[in-house]
Amino acid sequence: MSFEIKDIVEENMCIGCGLCVSESQSSSMVWNESGFLVPDTTKKFSEDAIKLCPFNPEPEADVFDEDKLANLYLPNSKNRDDRIGRYESTYIGYSNQFRKTSSSGGIATFIFEQLLEQKIVDHLFVVKEVAGTYKYQWFDNIKEIKNMSKTRYIPVTLERLFREIDGKEGKVAVSGVACFVKAIRLKQYYYPQYRDKIPFIVGIICGGFKSKFFTDYLTQKSGIEGDYKNQEYRIKDKDSLASDYSFGAYDKNNNFHQLKMRNVGDMWGTGLFKANACDFCDDVTTELADISLGDAWLPEYKKDGLGNSIIITRNTIANELIEKGKLANLLTIDVVSKEKIIQSQKGSFTHRQDSIFFRKKIAGVKLKKRIKFKKKIKLSYKLVQVSRRMVRRKSLAIWKLNKNASIFNKKMKYYLFILKVATKINHKIRK
Ligand SMILES: Cc1cc2nc3c(=O)[nH]c(=O)nc-3n(C[C@H](O)[C@H](O)[C@H](O)COP(=O)(O)OP(=O)(O)OC[C@H]3O[C@@H](n4cnc5c(N)ncnc54)[C@H](O)[C@@H]3O)c2cc1C
Ligand code: SF4
Ligand code: SF4
């Protein structure tokens, strides 16, 4: 069977990267009823559009999976690891200048600043505030580089990248989560002129994409009724743990409302408001980027409320940027073992890689995944997986119907309880 973009969207496997839209004269990304961006499939796409889709069930042999793509884009990396992919070096630390105003260690902002300053690229295509919300934007103002810092957990799309890139003089660097980076690599494979045009991709390590409902829920919980703007997802508390951050947003009268994330419980491990496609993604550390950045969720770093980044350099350019930054005292970083990096994302590896084949089976998903992750998992962990999938699905369905945080909490209680019990049993058996 031949798949089309319409099939990806109808089977709920679209993550909203927007790459297929560059293969259509008239389609654009639109909000669906579950709070995600998807392509308008009433419009026509070229036959090749599906080839750019990171969730294409029938990719060609040379670009079959992340390992094949890494052969093409990172052929000279010194090291390789089944879990984190190809790499040069692994570090943990922060940017002395940008950490305070960034989500974790401010390394993404540092790298983008260096890319512009050293004229490795002329433009950035990054997620940035626009009219009170966040979208991918063109950006090249090095003096205002802090304007593009911070993580935004709201659906964004690369839709404009390949529609506008030919009009940009010079080279471009992009930030992206793993599936977005994969989509860019696929585009570069089929349109080789974009390999030189985009010489550097900053990979944002990603544990899952949240629906817009996630932000709607948090703003209500923070006390805002109705419209909101300029939401902040990671307000740090330097006197507490790195994981003890707050959410905040402005209401329509410009009053800022804030909410400690610990007061809403575990929003990440439970799968609340998460995209379905994320359950079929095994790339934990954004393996196809030139550098991958995430949070150092490790006991020895968690104590530092300002945050630290894990850093995986995957080629020599990335490695030099980091090493020179360290030498020039712009970065405070330590070389760490790959095991430390893996430990910092332990939950994500266990969920995403170890149990992906089980999820594929229970969901009847045709997508082929890397066979190296095919594992037998315990019955107790299977129950966790089934419950998590249920929580994910129910959270979107319940919010869609009610759009009210109190009703949502009441209706989700039962499903979250089941997940909690399954998780407890699994932890007991694991010991
Ligand atoms: C959806 C999502 C899920 C994540 N899940 C995890 C996780 O499970 N584990 C983990 O360790 N880290 C995760 N992160 C990454 C983490 O939140 C930080 O973004 C990362 O550590 C970089 O921090 P920094 O201080 O170096 O970035 P900063 O210096 O603050 O810069 C942030 C950069 O990220 C870009 N950006 C912001 N939002 C997005 C977006 N939605 N998509 C693409 N680029 C964006 C900005 O353009 C900017 O360049 C996630 C990020 C996102 C967007
Ligand atoms: S994942 Fe990307 S390429 Fe695939 S259908 Fe969705 S927007 Fe299009
Ligand atoms: S978990 Fe995977 S599929 Fe989901 S947004 Fe992150 S990189 Fe994309």
Explain what the structure shows:
The protein is α+β, with helices and mostly antiparallel strands and 431 residues long. It folds into 3 domains: 5-206 and 277-292 and 308-349, no CATH class; 212-264; 378-430. Helices cover 34% and strands 18% of the residues. The chain has helices spanning 5-10, 66-73, 107-117, 161-164, 178-190, 193-197, 212-221, 299-302, 316-327, 338-344, 346-354, 356-363, 379-402, 405-430, and strands at 29-31, 37-39, 79-81, 85-87, 89-95, 123-130, 133-139, 172-177, 200-204, 228-235, 246-251, 256-260, 291-295, 309-313, 331-335. The strands form 4 sheets. It has an 8-stranded mixed β-sheet, sandwiched between helices. A 3-stranded antiparallel β-sheet has the order 10-11-12, with helices on one face. Strands 1-2 form a two-stranded antiparallel ribbon. Strand 3 (79-81) and strand 4 form a beta hairpin. Helix 13 (379-402) packs antiparallel against helix 14. The mean pLDDT is 97. The structure holds flavin-adenine dinucleotide and iron/sulfur cluster (2 copies).
